[in-house]
Model the fold of this input.
Amino acid sequence: MSYLTLENLHRDFGTVKALNGINIQIGEGEFLSLLGPSGCGKTTALRLVAGFDRPDAGRIVVDGRDITNVAPNKRDMGMVFQAYSLFPNLTARQNVEFGLRVRGKDRATRGSKAGELLELVGLGHAGDRFPHQLSGGMQQRVALARALAIEPRVLLLDEPLSALDAKVRVQLREEIRRIQLELGITTLYVTHDQEEALAISDHVAVMYGGVIEQMGTPSEMYTAPATPFVAEFIGTMNRLEGRVVDSTSGLVEHAGLRITIDAARGRQAGERVLVLIRPESLEVQAAGGNGDAGGNVLRADVITHTFLGPVTRVKLASGELSLTADMPPARASALPVGSSVVAHVPSEGVKLLQLGDDAPASVGLDPDNP
Amino acid sequence: MSGRRRLPLAWLATLPFFAYAIAFLFLPAFSVMVGAFQDKANHATFANIRLLFDHPYIDAYRTSIEISLVTALLGGALGLLVAYAAIREGTPGWIRSALTTFSGVAANFGGIPLAFAFIATIGPLGVLTTWLRNAGWDPTQHGFQLFSKLGVEIAYMYFQLPLMILVIAPAIDGLRKEWREAAANLGAKQWQFWRYVGVPVLMPSLLGAIILLFGNAFAAYATAYSLTAGTVNIVPILIGAYYTGNVLDNPHIAQALAFGMFVVLALMMVVYVPLQRRAARWAK
Amino acid sequence: MAPSAYVWLGLAAVYFLLPLYATLDFSLKENKAGVPCCTLHNYGWVIHNGDFWHTIKISFLLALETIVISLVLFVPTIYWVHLKLPRLRPVIAFMALIPFVVPPIVMVVGLLKVFAWTPGWFYGQPWGFLAAAYVILAFPYMYFSLDAGFRSIDVHTLTEASQSLGASWPTTLLKVIVPNIRTAALGASFLALAIVMGEFTIANLAAFHTFPIFLQYVNESQGFPAGALTLLSFLITWAAMLSLLLVGRKRGARGAVIAGAR
Done:
């Protein structure tokens, strides 16, 4: 039973279709992230839910009640903005109390609630400071406390961590999730950072061009992307465009290279497909060993090493094909730049996307920097 | 001396500027202060200052302060409303540009030309006066006189209003959209936002702007002179009377009057500067 | 657009535009009773009036003199302060606030007293006494404008580059620095022009015959022709301020500028 439903939402700005029929259902207590690049419509959707904008078509339903035409100050939702939303003339405590004050709660109630929430976000000691005396991370914690003080039915967050330092971001996102689970509050979270979305959400909806490309659990999004865009946007992915050669064995041809993919079995011969291989699935060995034999083997040269901490990302070039492989740094040091290697493509576990005859295999995103 | 020779030389280059400022700014200002406390024989005395508290001098200060206060407060309130109307969401952008451009020009349309423009509008034969008269309600029959304190106030608004608009616009810009949205999201109505967040945040800029307007009106001379043919009793006119009409025979009285103006304006600056600093803090 | 916005903007428009219309209306009327409208007689009167051209020429030349003296005095000083004496900046900024506390009506009292003993070629001529006073009057506006201009360029790097190429101080100042603050200097000059063309207080008390003095004389004596004159004077101010805004737009200049007579 959906607690928060976005039903067929449309929003146009002049000739630009910011939202082109969005359908989302969030269960009570669930944490859903709207993930996508700038301009995909995720913030537009959030603002429609918050009431700062009206849809051109569609409905928004909360707990069975249609709130599409309800004013923003009557929707009983708590929103955390990207930045600068704390009232500068009020202390942290007064900011948190604000929602209670406009509801006419007495001083004692306000004080105790504010104190409770400031403790929850770890700022019990900083209640009397003004926003300009707080760091970015602390300000966003106060903003969260302020949104939660009114005990809203839904919690909305609009890229709350984008303006913060990387370390603070990771720390704060875990806290947001912890608090959300503790309070059991239905949450809609907007972000362009896919790692963030995958890390803390129950479900993720990837948006692009005003539509939802795919919605599912973080694990589903990562291992089974449903469209080329999602494949490009989430994580790093090796993409090989090819045609099915043999439907029984699952042979796929890509630029003269023939590999067997389990997922290609049963597909029509001649069909255009996109083979998706995660970097950690590619097995790379030095050339000249006994790994040279066998199917699904590519000869390549090592082009670059990028040390990422837990893994080293190795870029390989095989003719015109460029591949990325992740491996433990110790292994990577055995395969120096310029050396010849063989890369083995596993036949099971590799996903396949069907491409229409004229569908693009790539949306043009830089794979390492979406 | 050889080791420090470089420092004095650098200061030397600014000498022309400081010499000029001393000659034409500090010296005259200082001589006014000194002259205020001298009698005709150039002996020290408080007599001039004491005289300021007599009629008609004290009346002149009272009228000057009253006109300045009225036009500052009125200009402040109306300027805020007009500026907000032009800047707020929903108003097309060209209106704000037009208003700012016009304000920049109107703020300089003061003095003699402005006085005539108002004579042409609400003077005895003015365009508006004639319209009202033809419509059946004659302002002059109801005691309205352009050449009076009220007329001066109405005319002063023509440069006070634009000044307010120009000065308060950046402060209104500083009212972040997120604050209004957050307030609405937390359940506040419009007036609650203004009461708890909007006006408090604007207050330092508002007060600073009103003080600016006060000083602006207080020091004004040309408009009142032209509009009332020098008859309205305000301090600048009184000072001017010494030089143009030989009404006063003691130059030290004029200097005392000028000194009094300086005191009022200096008091204002003392309040204005810390206010500006406070306003800047919240603009972040 | 919100209904209250319509109300306030509408009222403002009426208040601002009505006097301008009224001036235009008066300027097209003659002193004879019963003549409704419209005649260019007043404009003709102005154009053919010798005093008009005489005083406008004086005011304009006075403005030029003020601008030249101001630029020659302020540009090198501000440059030097930015380059070598940054601690002086707050001092000069403070000095720029003084004319606010010592307005023209107060300043002229002091000026007339202090310079009463100076020779006639200074005290009795607008090119001496009045110009000197106007430089001080324009000082705050010129300072803030030029200072903003200097802040927007990297004074140190430009100077060092110029010197490393062998240029002397005057060359550096004239050929390197000045061209780069041209916009600010131009803006400041237009401001000074507006100030001088409209300044009445000092000119009146010191009994000089400038354009605003002529304006007032016509106001007192003529009536309808004053309308034509007022409109012309307004157009001059308008042209100066518009030039300032156009020049400033290139560099995105902001800030309130109230520079005329009041």
